[in-house]
Design a protein that fits this description.
Order of helices and strands of chain A: HHHHHHHHHHHHH
Number of strands of chain A: 0
Distance between the termini of chain B: 59 Å
Oligomer: heterodimer
Helix content of chain B: over 70%
Radius of gyration of chain B: 28 Å
Shape of chain A: extended
Number of helices of chain A: 13
Strand content of chain B: under 5%
Number of strands of chain B: 0
Structural class of chain B: mainly alpha
Largest interface: A-B, 85 and 74 residues
Low-confidence stretches of chain B: none
Mean pLDDT of chain A: 80
Mean pLDDT of chain B: 84
Low-confidence stretches of chain A: 37-45
Largest sheet of chain B: none
Number of helices of chain B: 15
Amino acid sequence: MASLLFSPIVFFAQIVLVLLLALVFGAVVTGRGERRARAAPLAPGAPPALLTAILEGQRARAVTLGWSLRGWLWLRAASAALGLIVGVIIGTPVVILGCAIAGVVAVPFVLGPFTDRRRLQMERALVDQARAIVDLIRTSNQTLDEALTDAGGNPLPVVRHIVEPLADTEQSIRDRLIEVDRRALSPIANRICADLLLSLDTSPEAFVVEASEVLIPQYEADLTIQERNHAIAQGSRQAGYIVAGLMTLMFVVVMHVDTFRSAYSRPLGQVILLVIAGMVMLIFWIIGRLTPSVRWVRWNLLEIKTQLERRYA
Amino acid sequence: MSFLIWPGVIAGAALAVGLALWRLGALTPPPIAAWNRVGRNHGLIDDRPLTERLGERAPFVRRFDDAANIPKLLAIAGRTESATAWFLRTTALALLAVLGGFALDLLGLATGGDLPFPLIYCVAFGALTFLVGFLLLRIAARRRQAALEAGLSSALTELAILTYNHQMSIDNALDLLARSQADGHLWELMRDEGWRRLVVVDSSRMLPFRDQAFTSVASLYEKIGHAYGVPMFVLLGSTMRRMDDKGLSPRSVLTNLARAVGAGNLAEMQVRSEQSKFRQAVPIGLMIVPLLLLIGYPAWVSLSRAF
């Protein structure tokens, strides 16, 4: 016992333990202030919670496809279940897990081009609608408020669901624009609504000049950037399809051979499968990192409304 | 050579003590110290850190200062902690990594009777952890710079709308727009003059108003742009200055600026698009590694069974 107590290893261990405890204590004490500072909410632009952000993303995809959020989530759940069943049929734990994950991510991956095309169509239609509103004000001497209401009553078919709240005259025009933004969930729609909200106080003549000189050219430039962005994303997606397709094909071929499948059913084989899955994920991550994307600034329309109302109050 | 070590250590220690005394002002003659005190009261002394002052004359020092100035990086990244707190926290994490290495060595010593790796490696773990902490801080600072740049360049069209017909001044409009951006980066900088963490407003010879010196918004924006590394602020500030000097209308100038920025973004997007076409070949080429592993492992197992 005495030899153990006075052994250098135990003494070394004691030093390591004491220093470790001191460091943990120091980290807790110094980290508390920083955590408090970070926990303090930012007044207008507090970032949304993770779950809310994920749900917003899913809702944006569903809206673009013209589906409800519930329908979209059901499709994803069904795809995940299908992946799970395929994994169970093949048999090994890693394959079951991998197939379930593939089922979860497969739907947005496969429907990606269709979603992008629909979103571009919708955004182009929104810019056309904005141009039509300007023309309406120019030719028929309407105010912006009236022209927006008119646009809500006669929308372009592609954006009917998004623009129709503009015709709801029981709400204020600002609330109607906020509702349009809530339904569209697109950066260009968000910008159009923000600009219209800010332009409500200008005279019709000034708005026409402002829209022709500033807004419409800006939206067209935004649309061009968005089109370019989608073209790049499409190229990256093709690279992703090649990787996913080839890996799936080879996986099926390998699992079809009994000796190969038995090699993968061992514990070491399961680890190798995990390593392969990790490498494939890394390749997808690299594809994502190599895809340039535009940083869109999202406007908080409720805050703009509050600011404008406060200004006039 | 060993007889040189101790004299070297003594000379080094003396140099360090001398430097510390010089920095603390103990070596400054009393009349000069008194003059410095008087000058500071009248705003005649440059209070900036030594590296920043030297950086004006030597570009290398400025580049080094931009890359390694922790208080500046913390301010750009929008972190509220002080440089000392960051340094202590990162050092503590580095020490934790060193201790983790020691613990692993101890475990190996207790179980196998031999050190798994030399103790000096643990110091390397610590240095690596410190370096990672520093790199993470730099990444956070760069991300915030990019967010501020994007936030301001996206607000130019809206600035043109709000200043149309002189409804609102540019600084009021920017305040409203900064509040209205959902990510909040721009507002975080503008709120309660948060930019004052890095921007020093020249207050010399303005004794009664030293806290609220008479500085135009245009030059403030330029200073913010230079201090935080956001060129769009400099561009906006110089545009405002031009409008004031030449009597130009904000509408046309801001509209043209927004258009130029939009065209620049489009051109940048085209360049990145062309570059990405070639870069996409890299991950497809990398795919050979998991493919070889997928086929190679069972083949190796089968062959090892056969022989």
